[in-house]
């Protein structure tokens, strides 16, 4: 249990809600006196994360707008380097995905699949 907690903390991925929840669940799996419930902390994390990306271009963690010649042309997924994922950056062109909304959905799906695979290996 302790090794899993150390591994999660060493990922240093503070912008990834699922990791934060996994850390809290791991801590709560260790027998100890608690002043707040597990659900309290999960709700707090979800509240913090729901507001965190409100003003970013995509509204999502690790996804930003890609520009060429000053024009917005794609969504770019940039994953943290310490995750050692290759490629650490992947683009989703508005043209290829027939518009910004579909490209953003593809970027979100890609990001979630990559990050979920990391969690599945724990």
Describe the structure.
- The model has no long low-confidence stretch (mean pLDDT 84).
- The protein has four helices and three strands.
- It has two domains: 1-52; 57-122, no CATH class.
- The chain has 122 residues and is α+β, with helices and mostly antiparallel strands.
- The termini are close together.
Q: Counting H and I runs of at least 4 residues, what is the number of helices?
A: 4
Q: Which sheet architecture does the biggest sheet show? A: 3 strands, antiparallel
Average pLDDT number: 84
Count the strands?
A: 3
Question: DSSP strand (E) fraction?
Answer: 15-25%
Helix content: 40-55%
Distance between the termini: 11 Å
Please trace the helix and strand order, writing H or E for each element: HHHEEEH
Q: What characteristic shape results from the CA principal axes?
A: elongated
Structural class, judged by helices and strands?
A: alpha+beta
Number of domains: 2
Return Rg in Å.
17 Å
Strand order of the largest sheet: 1-2-3
Point out poorly predicted stretches: none
């Amino acid at each position: 249990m302790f090794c899993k907690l150390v591994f999660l903390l060493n990922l240093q991925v503070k912008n990834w809600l699922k990791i934060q929840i996994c850390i809290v669940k791991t801590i709560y799996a260790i027998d100890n006196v608690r002043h707040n419930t597990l659900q309290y902390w999960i709700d707090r994390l979800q509240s913090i994360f729901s507001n965190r990306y409100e003003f970013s271009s995509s509204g999502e963690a690790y996804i930003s707008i890609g520009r060429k010649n000053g024009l917005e042309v794609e969504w770019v997924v940039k994953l943290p380097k310490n995750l050692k994922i290759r490629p650490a950056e992947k683009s989703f062109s508005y043209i290829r995905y027939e518009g910004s909304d579909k490209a953003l959905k593809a970027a979100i799906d890609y990001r979630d699949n990559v990050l979920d695979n990391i969690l599945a290996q724990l």
